[in-house]
């Protein structure tokens, strides 16, 4: 694969010169070639992008500096967009790039980094790898992944930081819309945003097999929301410090939550809410520091199992809702809860309460 270095095309990275034309010239050459590496070297300051960046339609790797990272200051437009809607296969990557929205605006730009994939029914796979990237400022979606015809994408060590003074301006730090499935997020973090991780799909083609490992959301309204149009969602060793709901699972199939740590930050918080599928919840800890949540864990579906969990500082520790049937709780420890558990469903069991 050939290299297309933005500095070769005239980019300066001095923070004051507009580098939009140089970036677009490099992207145009890359798109014409059909594949290659867009090289974004370390710069003395940041790359000033005052205009609109062209979309990358080629099978490409956007490669920043592996030591210092390569900074893009975006003034008003979108960040890096991979548009592979006309392609049927291929792997695209972006590594070691920082994208910062430098305007303090009330109407944020749409994408910090995004991948737009092909159509359902592709015979060959599309994949997207995003590693060691930082996304700062006001974006509607920090990282947006839409691969309607592909799977097996990896998002690793990517951080999205919103505006601490107006954190709801970044609506979704990570938006995974991937009917067909299998996206893994590893060691990703969101801070000062409305929703840390949002997963959605189609009614007939749910987004399946989304895996979160070691992911975090701090000072956020919501941690993970997996809608009714998802399936088989898995969370392992994640942490959320939230104002509303840490994990909301509407997923079909079998979901797994293991090692979740929740520290709520308001009296209107909920730890875990399950409304779909069969969810296994185990080895979780959740409590507040001066705050009392509404509910620690709320189950509104069938065949959910909760085990080996510590729940504190909640109005209700564990709630079996009206739609909860044949669910179980065992080896549970409650402290500082007004009511340890309530069973409003049918056929449920709770044993070994401490």
Radius of gyration: 22 Å
Major β-sheet profile: 24 strands, parallel
Uncertain regions spanning at least 5 consecutive residues = none
User: β content, as a range?
Assistant: over 45%
Count of helical stretches: 1
Rounded mean pLDDT is 91
Essential attributes:
single chain; 354 residues; mainly beta; 24-stranded parallel beta sheet; 11-stranded parallel beta sheet; 1 helix; 37 strands
Provide structural commentary.
The chain is mainly β and 354 residues long. The chain has one helix at 20-33; strands spanning 3-5, 35-39, 47-49, 59-63, 70-74, 80-83, 90-95, 97-101, 109-116, 126-131, 134-136, 139-146, 153-156, 159-161, 172-177, 183-186, 189-191, 195-200, 207-208, 211-213, 216-220, 222-226, 230-231, 234-236, 239-242, 245-249, 254-258, 261-264, 270-274, 278-282, 285-288, 293-299, 305-312, 314-320, 328-335, 339-343, 349-353. It has a domain at 232-354. It has a 24-stranded parallel beta sheet that branches. It has an eleven-stranded parallel beta sheet with strand order 6-9-12-15-18-22-26-29-32-34-36, with no helix packed on it. A two-stranded parallel ribbon has the order 19-23.
